[in-house]
Amino acid sequence: MSSENYIDLPPLLSAHGTITLPGSKSISNRILLLSALAQGTTEIRDVLLSDDTERMLDGLRSLGVAVEQLEPHVFRVQGCGGNFPVKSAELFLGNAGTAFRPLTAALALSGGEYRLSGVPRMHERPIGDLVDALRELGADIECLDNEGFPPLHIHPATLTGVGRVSVRGDVSSQFLTALLMALPLLGREVTVDVTGELISKPYIEITLAMMARFGVNIARDDWRSFTVAAGSSYHSPGVIYVEGDASSASYFLAAGAIGGGPVRVEGVGRNSVQGDIHFAAALENMRVDITWGDNWIEACRPADRKLKAIDLDCNHIPDAAMTLAVVALFADGTTTLRNIASWRVKETDRIAAMATELRKVGATVEEGADYIRVTPPETIRHAAIDTYDDHRMAMCFSLAAFGAEGIRINDPRCVAKTFPNYFTLLHDVVKAVPVIAIDGPSASGKGTVAKLVAARLGYHYLDSGALYRLLAMAALRDSIPLSDEANLAELAERIEIRFEGEQIWLDGALAGDELRGEQCAAAASKVAALPRVRAALLAKQHAFRKAPGLVADGRDMGSVVFPDAALKVFLTASAEARADRRYKQLKEKGIGANIAALLLDIRVRDERDTQRSASPLQQAPGASLLDTTALNIEQAVNEVLARYPV
């Protein structure tokens, strides 16, 4: 179930399949900017379409760069040789660091007046080290709110002729990337010295590889200094392709590791320039079988092999390392991820955010300035995961759905930053705990049929009608009027319900025959018509979905509660047949009944259930109709099983 505010992922059993990765965000934005800085026209293929690339495209267009979209993922950029046609502009760059930092450097070394801003989180992300290095070269940059942070006002530069500058490497590799990409605009030799340990080295490798594709080769002294030669300038390669995103590959490779696989990702392989492909090696250390191709990677784990905890320096895979923190929930032992200080200055403080959300699902977590240590719980709990407007938090924690209870991801739309159709592709390669949803009107026999189908398959069973009867019983017990929607919803959230074979428990007490009585049934029908009550009981119903499967009966199982059910059956019978069955059931229990009164009650209840505003009784889309008027119970059970796509 999903809304604009959250998506509920059911408990997942396995993962298997092949997906084609979207283009790399890091490569897409580098190539878009280099194409604008180059001489000539560049056709860029397989560009990622996401919030971050849209910010870069919008920025370039605002600067007067001719950008034409030829196909959904193909763009043609007319380079301006670093001389942007528009000399005064205001650029809003969202939370896109791969757009904000490089554009800052390129604009700071040109002659123009520019204001660069972003979302509030971008204004909290440091940029002072880059600004200081650019000022050494003669850039005139004003930090408008707080020194060292966006938003920025860039004035025309007065170049100093300095041939050597320094930049810190231990906060963000994007500072060095931005400098290196902008320095060829000066046309003279400049050396950049890196102070401190350079983090995220693979991202610098991407920068150097992309610059080389545009004709600029950088001389370097290991990771200590980088020199741009005099006379360097960018020239279009004509046509260039964007690799699939290796960071995004991590979620699907991890799904193959947790869910057994094999899962293959296409778009990256053994020849990739992206450091995050080494995530696959980390999975190998956790006892996952990895197979490589030139343009694909595949992950598989035999069912009898448990994942092993690891202790890993993650400097080389800073983004993909987040995925390992969630994979650790399924590993044997404590996993430690080190050298991840850059997490602190990303879209959110990812170390703090990851620790908070991992604890929600039951993990024991220790966090430090540059590490996180994760000990998995015995059972991964269901939780509503907050994502902090951070796409990677949402995608990482989707993997927690392989726990026994599934997971809720709040603000799932944040994945649009890099991977807008992530949840669709995830759905295509995972198998959820199957559900058979049997809906139908009152006294149609759905409860009896559902219980027997569950027994035949060895599945769990949910009698949703019993939930509403139990709530009605609790309301009568607590003297809450059946029309008091607010208090009934609160009661629904706090009551404890337990099914044990034929026995049903309410708040620790065994429910008696009154649960199946007509008074209780009538009361249940009234409270079930209240929208807030139905919403409150939804989570309780979802909790019954556990391996190996669930058979659920009710009146909105296939339409509202389990819309992704493997089989939906709308089971019905004539009102006369249903009244006769209810009469016989009550007589067998020694309960007095009048068949005419039962028939009238059924017709009244049908009318009320079909007309109610909240989850009206109806045949769900995709549900098959099963009329049992002329069938006995055994025949009805066999018919349901025959329709089940095992």
From TrEMBL:
GO MF terms, alphabetically ordered: 3-phosphoshikimate 1-carboxyvinyltransferase activity; ATP binding; CMP kinase activity; dCMP kinase activity
Keyword Electron transport in record: no
Protein residues bound to 3-phosphoshikimate: 25-26, 30, 172-174, 200, 319, 346
Primary enzyme class: transferase
One GO BP: pyrimidine nucleotide metabolic process
EC number: 2.5.1.19, 2.7.4.25
Major localization listed first in the record, in broad terms: cytoplasm
Pfam families reported in the protein's UniProt record: Cytidylate_kin, EPSP_synthase
The Cytidylate kinase domain, residue ranges: 436-643
Binding residues for ATP: 440-448
PROSITE patterns, per database record: EPSP_SYNTHASE_1, EPSP_SYNTHASE_2
Limits of the Enolpyruvate transferase domain: 16-424
Active site (record annotation): 319 (proton acceptor)
GO cellular component, one term: cytoplasm
Catalytic activity: CMP + ATP = CDP + ADP; 3-phosphoshikimate + phosphoenolpyruvate = 5-O-(1-carboxyvinyl)-3-phosphoshikimate + phosphate; dCMP + ATP = dCDP + ADP
Keywords of the record: Amino-acid biosynthesis, Aromatic amino acid biosynthesis, ATP-binding, Cytoplasm, Kinase, Nucleotide-binding, Transferase
Pathway listed: Metabolic intermediate biosynthesis; chorismate biosynthesis; chorismate from D-erythrose 4-phosphate and phosphoenolpyruvate: step 6/7
Cellular localisation: Cytoplasm
Subunit structure: Monomer.
NCBIfam families associated with the record: aroA, cmk, PRK11860.1
Role this protein plays: Catalyzes the transfer of the enolpyruvyl moiety of phosphoenolpyruvate (PEP) to the 5-hydroxyl of shikimate-3-phosphate (S3P) to produce enolpyruvyl shikimate-3-phosphate and inorganic phosphate.
HAMAP family documented for this protein: Cytidyl_kinase_type1, EPSP_synth
Family membership: Belongs to the cytidylate kinase family. Type 1 subfamily.
PANTHER family xrefs: AROM/DEHYDROQUINATE SYNTHASE (PTHR21090), PENTAFUNCTIONAL AROM POLYPEPTIDE (PTHR21090:SF5)
Stated name of the protein: Multifunctional fusion protein
Species of provenance: Candidatus Gallionella acididurans
